[in-house]
Design a protein that fits this description.
Chain A: One of its GO terms (molecular function) is 3-oxoacyl-[acyl-carrier-protein] synthase activity. With about 425 residues, chain A is an alpha/beta fold. Chain A is about 30% helix and about 20% strand. The radius of gyration of chain A is 20 Å and the shape is globular. Classes of the chains: A alpha/beta (about 425), B alpha/beta (about 425).
Amino acid sequence: MSPARTGSAPVVTGVGVIAPNGLGVGEFWPAVRDGHLALAPIGRLEPNPYPVTVAGEVTGFEPAGWVEPRITVQTDRFTHFALAAADLALRDAALDPAAVEPFEFGVMTAGYSGGVEFGQREIERLWRHGPEHVGPYQSIAWFYAACSGQVSIGNGLRGPSGVLVADEAGGLDIFAAAGGELRRGVRAMLVGGAEAPFCPYAMCCQLGLGLLSTSGDPATAYQPFTKRAGGFAPAEGGAMLVVENAGAAHRRGATVQAVVAGHGATYTGRRRFDRSAQGLLRAAAGALAEAGLTPDDVDAVFLDAMADPLADAAEAEALRLLLGERASRVPVTAPKAGYGRSYSAAAVLDVATAVLALEHGLVPPTPGVRECRFDLDLVIGAARPVDLRTVLVLSRGVYGGNSALVLRHPESPISGGM
Amino acid sequence: MTRRVAVTGLGVVAPGGIGTKAFWELITSGRTATRPITLFDPDGFRSRIAAECDFDPVHAGLTTAEITRMDRYVQFASVAADEAWRQAQVGVTDPWRLGVCMGSAVGGTTLLEQDYVATSQRGQQWVVDAGAASPFLHCALSPATLAAEVADRVGACGPVRTVSSGCTAGLDAVGHGARLIEDGQADVVVAGASESPISPITVACFDAIRATSARNDDPAHAARPFDRDRDGFVLGEGAAVLVLEELDHARRRGAEVLAQVAGFATRSNAHHMTGLTTEGVEMAEAARRALDHARVAPDEIGYVNAHGSGTRQNDRHETAAFHRLLGERAHQVPVSSIKSMIGHSLGAIGSIELAACALALVHGVVPPTANLETPDPECDLDYVPHTARERRLDVVLSVGSGFGGFQSAVVLTRPERS
C-alpha cells in the first residue's frame, strides 16, 4: 500500500438532496424511512407518446429561491438541482466556503445525460431557424461539466474540480476521485451529481437502453428482485455531499455523519449482467479491503437494483459469494424503488440514504415490493432498526461498470481508509 | 514505496495524419492542418473552418460492425488505443488490474444531432419520433460508452471511467488514470481522450459567443495563438491514447519507458463559466501543485506546452500565469501551442498535447507555434515561432483551461534511471 493510501479516511459532514420524494433531508429521510412511493405518470412529457410513462419526477421544485435568476436562464434543470443540493449540503455541514483557504475546497460531479432539455431547445432553434439563433448559453449549459462549473462559481470554490461520466456507477466513483484529492491534502470537496432526463429527446435516447419499465402502473412499475421485475423507472433529481479531510473536519468542530471508508470499481462489459456478479463481488471486496474490513463487518447493503431479471440475479449472486452463509441474514434494501433510478444521481442518492441510515440506525425499506425471489433479507414494509456500523453501497452502469462504496458510522474504529 | 507512472505506449489520430508518426512529423514541421469545413456544409455559419482528420475507418482497421456501432469520436479513440496498445506490448496482465480512463467534452453530439434531425423532422417537432432513432442513439447520450469500447478492445476489467470536464478533459483523464495507478487501483491504465465536435450544433454554439476564428478566407493561418492578429480558436477533432503503467511493472517486463506522468493537479477560478482572470493565479496554482506532486521545482521545467487556444483572453491569462510560475526564468523557457497547427479539439486536445509532450521528451525537440508573425505586445515569452527547436528536455509541463473556470496541469518527466 502506497503512502498516498494511508491517513485518515474522508468524512461526510453535510448532505443536500433534491429528490422526487423530497427536497432536503428533512423531507427525504422520512419519505425514504416510511417507504413512500413517489413514482407517477411523467408530467413533463405531456403528451407522452413513448412506451415509458412512469417515472420519479421532482415536483414542486422551482429554481427561484435556489438559483439566481441570472443563472437560471443560463443553465439546464440538472444544474438547478445541483446548485440547490450544493446549497443544502453546505448548510447541513455548517461550512462557509469563504472560511476555507483558497484552492482547498473543490467540487466533483458525476453525470449521465447532461443539460439535455436546454440542448434540445437550442438545437431546435438551429435546425428550425438557423445557426444565428443558437443562444450564447448553449456552450455552457448542455455539457456535462456545467454542474461542477456552476457550483464552483456559485460558491467560490477554487479547489480541484472534476467530472465523471461513468453512468450510474460513476455516482460512487466520484467519491473515490474526491477522496484522492482529500488524501493529497485538500480540505473539503462538494461531491455529487444531478440528472434531469425528461425532455422528449432525452427520453427518446433512453428508450434504446431497453432497460426501462414500460408498466403504466406507478405501484408496480419498478419491482427489483421480484418475479415481476421488468425494468426500472427512470428518475430525475440530485444530491451533493460535503466530504472533508478528517483532520480538517475535526479541527473546525464539524459534526461527522459518516466515514467514507473504501471504494472499489470493476468493469465487466456492456449489458453483460451475467458477468457483473464477479464484477460486483470484486468491487465490494476491494472496497472492504481498502476500509480494512472483511465481509463479516457488513451490516447492511444498499443495492443497485436494476430490476432486470439477469441483473438482479447477478447482484444476488454477488452477495451470496461475498457474504457466504450470511447472505440470507444481512439486511439489504433498494429505497430507489420508491422514487426511481436517476442514473448517476441514483448512486449519489444511495450514498446520502446510507449516511442517513447510519445516523438513524435504521435500514429503510424497498417501497412497493412485497416479495423477494432470491434468498436475501430484502427489507420490505417498515424500516428495520439495526445497529449500523458498516454499510455497503453497490452500483452498476448500463455500460458495464460495477462499483462499491463502504461507509462507516463515525464512532466506529477506523482501521483502514481510502 | 511510492508508485510511479510510466508511459509505455502512444497512439494518435489527429488532423494532418493518422498515427503517432504522421502527427509528430506535422507538429514539428510547423505546417498547419486547418482548412474549410468539409464534414458538413458550413454555409451560414460565422466560423466555417476547422482542423479535420482525414480518417477512413476501414483503412484504419475497424470492422463494419464497429463502424456501424461507434460514433466518430469512439472510432478515433479505438484506433488510437489500438496503436498505443500495440506499442506498449503489455502482454499477459491481470484484467482486474487493467483500467481505462478516457476523456471527452461533448461526447456523442454528432450522433445526437444526426438523430435529432431525423426524429424531429429537421427541428419541426418538439415531441420527437423515437421510431426514427438509430439503435445506437442511447450510446450518444452519455460518453460512458467511450471508455467501455476502449475497455473491450484491451480486455480491461479494472476501473473504467470517462472524464467529461470540458476542455480540460484530455489532461484530466490522463491525470486521473495516473492516480488509479498511484493509488493502487490498477497497474496498467489505458488513458486518453477523443472528440469529434465538428457538427452544426457545436460550431453554432461557439459562433454564438464568438470564440472561434472567422478568418474563413485564410484557414491555414487562422489559428494564431499569441499573435496580435488572432481572432479565436479553430475547432479541431482527434484522439490520443497513452498506455500508463506502474513504473516497476514496466521495468520488470523490460518495456521501453517513454516518459513518466509525474504530477497532476486541477484548480478552478470560481469566476466565470467562459471568462478567465487576467492574473492567471489559478493556472499557476494548478501548475505549482502538479510540480509539487512531481517533486520538481519550477526551475527544472524545460518546456511548457501551453493551452494556447488563440483567444485574446487566454493568451494574456496564460502569459501572466507563466510569469507567475516561472518568475525570472519565464523568458528562458520555451512555450508553444500545437493548437496553431491542429486546432482545438476540446476534450481531446489535452491528451493529444500530452502525446506531443512525451514525444518531445523522447526526441529532444520542442514543437513550434505556427502562424506567430507579430506577437501580441502583451505576450512577451519565447513562444517558439514557426520552427521546431532541438533541446534536451527532462521536465515538461502541459496546461489547459476549460469552460467552468477549470485549470489543469500535468507534468511529464524523462524516465528515472532504475
